Structure formats: structure tokens, C-alpha cells
# Entry
Amino acid sequence: MLDSGEEAFQNGVSVNQATETETEAATSLVGTVLAGRYRIERLLGSGGMGSVYRAEHVLMRKACAVKVLHREMTQVKEVVARFEREAVAAARIEHPHVATATDFGQLENGSFYLVLEFIEGQSLGQLIGQHGALPEERALVITRQIADALAAAHDAGIVHRDLKPDNVMLVAKDDRSDFVKVLDFGIAKVQIEGMTADQPALTRLNTVMGTPEYMAPEQARGEAVDARADLYTLGIILYEMLAGTSPFRHDEFVVVLTKKLTEDPPALPAHVSPATRELVSKLLERTPSDRPQTATELVTRVDGILGFSPAPSLAFAPVSAQIRKPQPTSPDVAYAATVIGEAPVSAPRITLASRLRLAGVSAGSALGPALQLAKRRIAVGDKQVPLGAIGGALFGLPVIVALGLSAVSGGPVSSASPATSAAAVVDEDLSQLMKRAEGGDRTALAELVGRAASSKQATAYQALGRGYFKIGQVDAGLRAYRSGAKLDPKLGESTEVMTDLRRGLADPPNQQLSLEVAAALGTAGADFLYDVYDANRTANAALSKQAKGLLDSEPALSAQSAALKLVLELPKAKTEGCPAVKKLLPRILQSGDARLVPTLSRMNDRRGCGFLGLRDCFACLRSKKGDDLAGASKAAGERPAPKLGS
# Structure
């Protein structure tokens, strides 16, 4: 249940969509002639920011799609700037695989409108949702067309920045069922002289804009992006077409970003050819300079794999993979969902579940920059509008994940006064951010994902790991610890980290990952592996064997302390006999700890060897001067065993 005055959010956008008044206003345009040229035939979809219609040019008798911004939204300069940016970007790219914008203007009531090519078909996201993995050749043919469209955009100085399957329409044309149309340039980076001179800045350093599941690592870190970011995204899309699911899919968008910044994608299905595997691998390189450098180069590579004969198969690959939930197949509904960027009122919402989850966060709590900005309401006309909706998906404005500074230019916005720009988000000290993240603050975790990668501080990853465990994201927490351990193995000296490792070990799907993280955590990690090995020899032999295998391999092998080496060597020496044990006594006196005491105590028995077991097996350890074994046992007992969490 929502608290009073609180609003449900999904994908960072209000799930309430259009109000009843807005829907009535949108419907009232049906049957009218807009701007003297466009007869509005029917409403395709409506949301908090505006509506999309199917229309016909009254003189040319040509179908088109018309987006109309709600009049109240014209008071928010950022919304208008994005609307204009989409219009300019789409108009500048003249290419058969890009949806064309033909008109842009302002109505007498102040509303802005944008006229786009009307497209009948289904989105690539719907196709994957219905069928799962596509045949390799078909996936490559679609990829080639998208790359061709990107080449035209990049040549025009435009970087899309929010490419995804739901922004790619597939239409029937010239006997081809998979003719690609790329849409939604709402957050495109447009390099056009003079275009932004009088517009509010749409992004600032350390602000991430786009869809986390598909954005490039440098985009996730809030860094400046170029055309190569689009190529990374296309690599994600190609992977999804081949596997039936994207490589970093997760319900928590902060986990998506963490995986993207720290992990390699899972292996593609076995039937995918080596050439295509290599292409996907190159596209998904984390460093832009390691990817193909231009979309034209990518087209050439795909042509080489296809053998210059792009003829898509109609059959689907027999691959067992995670399947997207099927989406509506009505051409109008499909187009509306793609053009708007959020599901229209007549269709289920297309969503990556809970990308900006607000579970457990009340309206009055001390939210961090991203969700505080998303939930803040500003006065627009005679109503209060959530900024999360303004930054949301309608009109192709995808989720704004504020990972650093300001999402837009301008000063703070009061919820009680009219606003002409969204609020600035102030960057906070990394140590304070880590403290909030460590406590499980989801907003701080989202921000820290990018900051940790750029800071290269093990403690930042430690805070991420602690925070993920606080909110129950065990796998993400372990991965964060693994990233931190690569920077500083001494992370394992933290009792909290070792406690979390034990929690991970108690979760069967994460046992192997827990052991792998321990192996990277230096001396403490090696002690942890021994503890798991020793404690599970009978209860869980397989787990014990895994731990011992890692303990006997690098890097844990070199990280073993002098005390642990003695713990491992003493049982073997005992089986070899008294002289072998005697060689260890000086080291035991100097470095042995309490873990040796049980084994040493068993040697106190003066029987067990020789005829009928009547002879002392360890007589060489006892002399007239004293019992050397007793002294070693006493010294070891005075040194406690390592504390490895609780």
C-alpha cells in the first residue's frame, strides 16, 4: 500500500500515467484538424506528459503519427528541450532505417506537436518476447540494419544513447518482414551548431541517462559518450536476439549496473558461430577503444559473417532461454508503445521490473539525489507533477538515474512554486555516500556503482557489498566484494565482510561465488577457506572439496599465514612420525595458534605404537628437560584462532 500522498513508480515514471482530465483532453482532439493540416483519427496512447495519435495529412492523404505535449508541460523547459531535440535529431537523419520526423510546431494553446512517419509492425522487443532467441542469420540481418541506421545518425553528429529492442520497429516492406525502423531520439546527443545555445543543459557530468540494461559502461559511469556507446548497446541487443535474454538482466537496476561494470557476459548458446561470438565479445568490451570504432565498420563485419547475402530465415532457433513476457501484437499498440516510450493505457506496461524500486522508502525519508529528484513534485499550471515523470519514458525520455551531479541546469525547485527547470542535484562527499550505501540506501547504492568504478577504492566496493547484503541482494554483494578484493585483498580483515561471506555460503546458489571471493581476500580469505574445508568434511564433502581446491591454488596459496601453513602441515607430519613433527615444533612455538591444539593434544597419549600399541608414538618430543610437546601446545593455545565473522 502507498502512504497518503505517495505515488507508485515503475521504470522511474508514475504508473498512474495520464489523469482522467488529461485522458479526456487527449480524446477531445480526435476528429479535429491539428495545425490546419493533420486530421486526428484516433488516440494511440496517452501518459503524464502527452499523447500520441494516428492522423492523416488532409491534403496529401498520408497517414502519420502526431505527438502532442500536454499544455501544462510547456512550462517545463527541459521537457520542451527534449521534445525539440528529438524532432531535430529525427529530421536530420535521412535514412530508410530511421523513422522520419516531418513537422514540428506549437499550437495556439501553447502545446508543442511533433509529426512522425507512421509505422505499422512490431517492436524487436515484442518479437523476442514472443519467440525468444532468433536464428543467428536473422539476428545478424536485423543488427546490420540497425548499424546502418546508426552510421547515418553518427555521420549527422547524433548519438542515440537510448537504443533498445523496444525502440526498434520491424515492418513488412518489399517482401521483407524484418525491415528495421529506429525510433526515439529523445535523449540523443546532437552536435548541431547553435542548437543548444538557448536551451537548458540536458545532462551534466556524472549523470546517467538511458536504460541501465542497455547502456554502455562509460554511460553508466556518467562519463561523456560518443558513437561507440551506441555500438556497445547494439552488442547487448545482438546478444539478446541470440540468447533470448539480455546478458545483465536483473530486477534491481543497481545490480544491472554493477554486473555491467565488473563482469563479463555469460556465454552465448552453443549453436552460435565463433565469428558471431567474437563480434559480440568485441562490441561488449568495457573500454570504448577496444570495440569496433564506427557503425560502418560494424556493417562491414556483419556483411563478412553473412557472406554478403542477408536473407533471414523464418524459423526460430531451438534454444532454451529466458523468454520475455509476450507483448501486444496490434500494430497500432506496438507503435504507440515504441513511440511513446512507455506502454499506452490499452496495453500492459513494457518494463524491466522495478528499475527504480522504492520499496521500503517513505515519502518523508531522507532520500538520496536520484529518487528525491524523481519523487519531487513541482507546480505545472494548476497541478503538481512528479519530476520522475518529466524525466520518464513518455516521448522517449527514459529513466534518468542521477548518479552524481545535476540532471539539468538551474537551481533548486520548490514544490510550492511554478518551475521552469528541474532541480539541481548536488554531488556529495564520497565518504558520506559510502556510509549511506552501506546502510542499504538504494539511491546511494545506485550512485555508488559508478563512483566506485571511477574512484578505484576498495572501501567503496566494500560499502557496496555491505549495502547489497542489507537489502538482500547476496549475489550483487558478493560481486562487489570480489571487485574490491582485486584492489585490496585486505578487505577480508573486516569482520562484516567475513560475516557476509558466511551468509553467502548459507545460500546454495551463491556458495561457489562466496568461496571464490574468499580466495581473493588475502590471509583472512585463506583462513575462511580452511574453516569451510574443515567444518564440512563430513557434513558436506563436495563443499569441503571445493574450499580445499581453492585453498591449494593461487591466490589463496600464497596468502596463507604462517599459522595456517602449520595447521595444514601438522596432520601430514603426524602420519610421517615423530621426527617430522619435531621439525615443526620451533615454528609452532613461534607462530602456531589455537587451531593446532586438538591435534597436539591427541599426541599427548603415550601409547599407540609398537607391539600391541604399547609404545609412545611421540617419545622423541619428550626429554628429561621437559615435555616439548606440552610447551608447543601451551604456546599455540595462547594465540586465538582467527575470527572469521559470525
User: Anything to note?
Assistant: The chain has 25 helices and 19 strands. The CA atoms of residues 97 and 149 lie 5 Å apart. The first helix runs from residue 20 to 28. The radius of gyration is 31 Å.
